[in-house]
Amino acid sequence: MIILGIETSCDETAAALVEDGTRLLSQEKATSFKSNELMGGVVPDKTAREQLRFILPVISKTLDKAALTSSQIDALAITYGPGLIGSLLIGVETAKTLSLAWNKPLVPINHLVGHIYANWLDTNPPLFPALVLIVSGGHSEIVLMKDHGDFELLGSTRDDAAGECFDKCGRLLGLPYPYGPFIEKEAVKLSPNASSLTISFPRPLKSDPSLDLSFSGLKTAFQTQYRRLVSEGLDPAVFKPLLAHELQEAVVDCLVTKFLRAAEVHPPSSLVLAGGVAANSLLRQNLSAAATELSLPVHIPPLSLCTDNATYIAAAAYFNYQPISPPLLTADPTLNFRSVIHESS
Ligand code: KG4
Ligand code: ZN
Question: For tag attachment on the chain, is the N or C end more exposed, with fewer CB atoms within 10 Å?
Fold first, then answer.
């Protein structure tokens, strides 16, 4: 079965053709990057206007790259939430129109579920029950996936998401947009001269027995330390890498500790990482090391499948094939994991 996936929940306009949920045939992506880079963040209405221009060329290039026509695809898959309303509407309304025009079934996909399926584009998919850590710009959740479409939400952030924490702190440091990857680049510049500086960040909720996460206190601590170092007139070339390094250590420590606690309480057959923050090298390394210690298989998407794209939307639709009548589908920016559990129960 060949599914055309479409993803426009944030600043990407992406399409991909995937066969049987596991084999990528082609993909194309346009990023509203330049204008957002200039503004230092996603500007929703500007992004949506760009996506309106991008969407049809992106879809037709995806078909051309695979040398397929619309008559050769079996279904369309579309992200219908969560995300920015203007951006979601572009993808959802385009997919509804194409579904009716081409007479192909339309499968709505929750973006967060989609992220998880980045791990199925592989010859060795995760075993159930899989314990999943989803870490993106807007969400941080620990989920037990008992089967396709069967999820139990074990914990989530009580305030900011891990990606949001990286982004806000990166912005304060004056790093380029998108901030997360630049925090990582800044951290590796850490120099021995920084050893005289003492910075220690809290690990919010780390020893709390719940499986919830919290990053807003960490962000505040980061701001306080940053202002202190600036006011002391220290060299930014020395303290910025140290702040980035310590922030990364604290975020990854909180994520891995809680994820491993979840694995103790709900012993899984595999560990799965998903979402944009899954691109972070320290998180990838520390999670792999922890999985080896627990003798559990760990699935970490290749870098190209961590941040938003349509490949995993098409894969998710294959394994959760529930087409909807196009006029009944509406974009829903407020979707979360609770919505998935509600839908599947
Ligand atoms: O999943 P995603 O592409 O978009 C959302 O669904 O939110 O995730 C984007 C998030 C951003 O917060 C970005 O800063 C973060 O992922 N991110 C990273 C890295 N690459 C992307 N955070 C830390 N280290 C990275 N290498
Ligand atoms: Zn995402």
Answer: C
